[in-house]
Input
Amino acid sequence: MQNDLENHPDLKDEGWVRAANRRAQREIRRQRRQARMRRHGGKVVSAVALIVIGAVLVGLYQAGRFGEVSLPEVKLPQTGVNLEIPFAGTPAEQWPEGEKGIVVPDANPIYEQVRQALIASRMDPVMLTEHKPDRFLAMLAPEVRDHVAKEISGWTTRLKQGTKLLPNGVRVSGKMTLGEQDGYPAVVTDYVFAYAFEPPDPKKLLDQMEIVAAIREKVTYVITPEGLWPADSDGFQYSIACQAAKDGFLAPQFTEPAKQDEGLPGDDRKYFSVDGQMPTENTCD
Output
């Protein structure tokens, strides 16, 4: 007798087919809840489910009947993220660490002045974890300090309390160019700062981007005799915890429950580049 999968009597049993579909759907929902994957992550889970179903059907075809099927071992994707190489597989993987990522075009002291302001506002541990902007504010012209201090979350990076960066958890890429504004030298800075956070339970995460948050900031610093005058600021945050961002702090995705249609809008690489226009999408409601 020929093994004909298409005409197998069990596959013509509508009750059995419906029950099998329900089991597959329950498994997909269970994995989605546990993984708390990004919006497009369901494609991965669905693909796994299809592989499992395909393996079952192949087994049925080879065995000739359901009662004697010996299913092949199907290995699901390994969960967990890489804490030893926190930026592994992300667009920031090959970027320089920390201050090394802010490279001045030449020896002009104006560039170094602005470079120190970027370090103080975006990478200084006192700024990141203690939320003290004194070093950054001291570099600014006295007339603008109060204004910047009142809107400090827009000019600096402050980590949400209770979060912690991994060792060497900051990567930077970008550029600065010299121009002129209001009769003074002006340096246009355009950088992406990527931060890798330490998760409480790495094995519950599936995607490296769940621990990485990124900020792109384009700011013009006008160099006056009294100090730096920040102007023409534009920015974008990506792969973040949305409520923390609304409160003025930076935190990774894993710190907040995922919401419908909230999170990452597309290809990671687009948001880790300073080559194009500043993104206009809103990743949070």
